Structure formats: C-alpha cells, structure tokens
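Handout, tutorial session.
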Amino acid sequence: MSELRIGLIGLGMMGRHHARVIRETPGVELVAVADAVGDPHHVAGELPLHADVEGLIGAGLDAAVVAVPTVLHEGIALRLADAGVHVLIEKPIAGDSASGRRIVEAFERRGLVGAVGHIERFNPALQSLRQRIADGDLGEVYQIATRRQGPFPARIADVGVVKDLATHDIDLSAWLAQSPFATVSAHTTVRSGREHEDMVSFTGRLANDVITSHLVNWLSPMKERVTVVTGERGAFVADTLTGDLTFYENGTVATEWDSVAAFRGVSEGAVTRFALAKREPLRLEHEAFRDAVLGVRNDIVTLRDGLRTIAVAEAVLESAATHTTVGVPE
C-alpha cells in the first residue's frame, strides 16, 4: 500500500515537532509544508515552502496537520474539508464553540477523519491509568485532580491559559472517567500584564458524579504536570512529564466487627511504581491518526471530543466572570 501523503501548515514550536514525527512515522510521507511567516526552525528541508493552505492542497494530500495559531483553525480546516483532506488540528479545536461546531459539521458532512491534538491522551502514564481504571483496579472513582503549572511559553499569544493549557486537563479528566463535565466553578486572574488570563483554579462535577479539581497557570517557576485519581481502593498518581505512574493502595481491610464495620475509612498501604514502555506521545498520536485515516482503528481524539472540551473551557471562563457555578451545555 502506498504511503499517505501528509501536509503540514504551521512551522512554529509545535509544527517543527510534527514535521519530525511525520518523517519518522511508517506509512506516511511529508510532501508539503506551509507557513505564512516562513520556516524559523528549518524543517522544510528539500520541500518547497508554501505561503498558505492552497499551496498544500495543490500538492495532492490525503491528510494534513494544522499547527497554526488557534484563531486561524477554522478557515484552514474548512478549506481542507472542502478539498476532501483528513485533518489533525492542534488543540484547542478552535477559539470558541461556534467555530468548533462549524469545523465538526464540515468534516462529518463529508465523511472525513478529523482529530484534535490533545496529546495527553497518548502519554504512557495516562494510557496505563485509563486501562487500569477500566479494569477495575481502583474500584469506584471518586475524584480526579490535576496540576499543570509552569512559566509562560512564548508561543502563545491569542488565547489564555484556560483554552491553551486547561483544555488538556478537561479532556483527560472526561476521558479517564468516561463521563462529560456537568458543572464547573472557577476563578481566574491576570498577573503578568497580558490580555488573557494566566492563572485558573476550578472544580468540576462530571455527569457520573466524579468530582474534579484543577490548578493551571503560566506563573510558576517550576514545571508540573500531575494527575491524581482517587477511588475506593487507593489513588493513582500520573506524572506526565516523566511518564511515571504510581499506585498508593488503600490499606484498610474489611472487618466483621459490626460496631466498626459501618465506619469506612482509609489507611496507608503498599506503594507500587509501574514499569511502563515510554514511547513518545506525539508519535503515538500520529500513528493513531494514520490508522484512523486507513480505517484500521479509531482511538483518536475526535473533533466532537474537541468541541466538548472547548465548551467546558467556555463554561470555566463564564464561571470566573460571573462568580457562579455554570452548567456545561450538552
């Protein structure tokens, strides 16, 4: 079978990594690149550098990766849909739900594969955690808490920390629990003099009554990417910077003594750190996108997944602005 012909638009901080991984992924070929402002990381190689999406389409593509600023996602994605090109769009899907919905409808109407680059789903620690939750290792899930903190990245200019960073935590929490967000309550602040919020703290309740808590900011001198899932049998701690997964067992044992059996508590038990194969998440994401285009499997983050995530992000911003708990639309 011939290789899928892939185009890449956006050659910035993320685009350079996409270019590298596309070239490393079996079954695909990078045949065209585009960026209106040039090739700062020199990823084009021997390929001609196009100025816009029309140049990509003219190369005869099967699929494309969109790694441009968020405000440009809709226009480029709709043009690729019109040309019959499958697409992987960097997260978030769009700057707002209305724009995201138009993207979703365009690709669904044409029967094209569309994916969103919520790369945390492909982190080995979270993939293992998701499987262990599904296997019942944690029993009933009570809470998902995340911390995503670090210095401001120069690559971001058009959205705040909620749509850029917190969307990772929104997506991974709903994915781990296999339940959408129902309500959120949030606080944001702007401390760095930029236009958009640079710090957010919010809680949520999922439709299955799992509660969530999230600390996200661009104002911490240390970088932290931690997910803690607590349930009846203990707690899993996933560090997605290192790809490590640790289980802290609830050491409380069942008792037949009636007078205390009704009291349900916890105690410290065994601690297990799992040995995981640590493949690069971006490589796994591209393999999943390739296989979805080929019809081999379908474990991508779909455009509808991305649309639900941006709807939650909008509810977070509304909650912060109104100082109320906000329901997330279906």
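The second record follows below. Compare its token runs with those of the first.
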Amino acid sequence: MKDRGKFKWVFLHPKYWLLWLVLGVFWLVIQLPYFILLRLGHVLGLLMYRFAHERRHIAQRNLELCFPQWTEQERTRVLKENFISSGIAFFEMGMSWWWCQKRLAKLLVIDGLEHLQAAQQQGQGVILMAAHFTTLEIGGALLGQLHTIDGMYRAHKNLVFDYVQHRGRERHNKDAVAIEREDVRTMLRHLRAGRAVWYAPDQDYGFKQSVFVPLFDVPAATVTATSKFAQLGRAVVIPMSQTRLANGKGYQMKIEPAWQDFPGASVEADCLRINQWLEQVIQAQPEQYLWAHRRFKTRPKGEARLY
C-alpha cells in the first residue's frame, strides 16, 4: 500500500548496504543513452541464454507446445530473441524507475487511449487486461504518465528492494496505487470507484482458481478471476498490449475498445475468449512474451506433466 513507498530508517541497516551499492551502480548505468542500454541488454540476454539452463528449457518447451508447426530452427531463433528481449527488459526496469518522465515519454507511440479516457469520463471502472510481455515494466511506466492505472503488486521479501520497486512503479502518477495481489477487496473497491486496474490473466495459478480451456490448442488452467472482477467490480474489460519497436525506435502501445457482453454466458466461454485474445497478441510478437513461466504446469487429472 502507500506506506510501502515511504522511506524507513531501518533501510540503512548494514545488512542492506551491499544492495544499496548494487542499486547505486545500476542507477548510474541506467543514465546511459538508450541505444547503449539496448546493447547491454542484448549482451545480458545472450549470457542468460547460455547459462540459465532451467529457464531456457521451460521457454523451449513452451514454444514446442504452442508452435508445433514451426521448424526447430524457427523455435531456436525465437528462443534466443526471447532471452535477448528479457535482457533488455532488465534495463527497461531501471529506466522506468529512474529516468525522468520527459525522457521516457519520447519513446512512446500510443493508439486507443481514448477508450480509457471515455470510461473515465463515464465513471466506469476498467480492468486493463494485459499479458506478461517482457516490456511489462516499461509499458506500465509509459502509460502511467498519461492515465492513472492502479497495478496488482506482489511485495518483495527484501524490504529495500520492495521500497525501491514500489516507489518506482507509483512515481509516474501520484494518484496511482499499487494493490497487493491478494487484496481483492481493495481492487474491487477501486473498480467500483471508476478507476482502472492493470490485470494479467495469463499465468497458471492451479486448479482452485481456474478452468481448463485451450491456449494454442493445449488445455491450459485459466484463471476465472477476470469474469468475477468484472462482475463484482461493475467494470469493463479493456485489452492492451505493448511492443518494443525495432532499431531503438521506442514502444508502440495499443489499447483496444472495451469488450462487449463480458462477462458472457459462462466463465468457460469468458476464459476461452481471453485465451483467444492472448493467442493473437502473442503471435504478433512471440519473441517478446514471457515464455519462461510454466504456463501449462497444472494438468487435467490423469494427464502427464509437460515439464
């Protein structure tokens, strides 16, 4: 909540000194020109591709499951590009936390902001439905300069890192609030008050909160919370996605019109609709999606594990 963004003297305890030093060096690096940060991210991504064996295996398996029609060479190319994209995302995180707003704003091209603005003018709560692309952090920072977006947030165990992360995410709009992921009541209260809340329904949270519907023709445990939040929060669902443009040209953000007839006839139909949308936005930029997540970890009863 808001007090997480406040400095506390306990942060100066000696056990945090090394972290402060690392963050200080990172802050200095982040001041470099954008094209240099992209190159550094490229190198970091290649190093992760070389040494992060478990993460590479998970991403490779996901690509095999979702794109069986691709050749092995195509999947290897996208896999390597995906790690490069993840390496760049590390520096984009620092940019979103510490670059001045004017410098960041120069990188954004946005389409569809009027859909968010129209909902705000009508006092309508919005579930800003997104996906876990590697550009997630900087996308939130860029949009936060133009519109108040409350984000779902998981507190970090390290108090200093949590403070820096929380402060960095809220600084682009002083009215924005980072809502802890388990704090459903606060999320619903914000939606009913006509606010926009960022939410990504594309990860595996197990049997309890999910139904099985296809994602790239693979049965995937898909959370039903989007439907419930929309109904209980009296909110509309507005999909959004962002893309890192080639050759250092910045970022393209697309905000789509609010979905009609959502929630629909059943949560299964809603989840299928969500997954079909996810397929579209992922296929448009597969190298920038977060493939290292075990998306198909939970299996229907009697089905073998996929990882």
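Points raised in discussion: The chain has one domain: 2-288.
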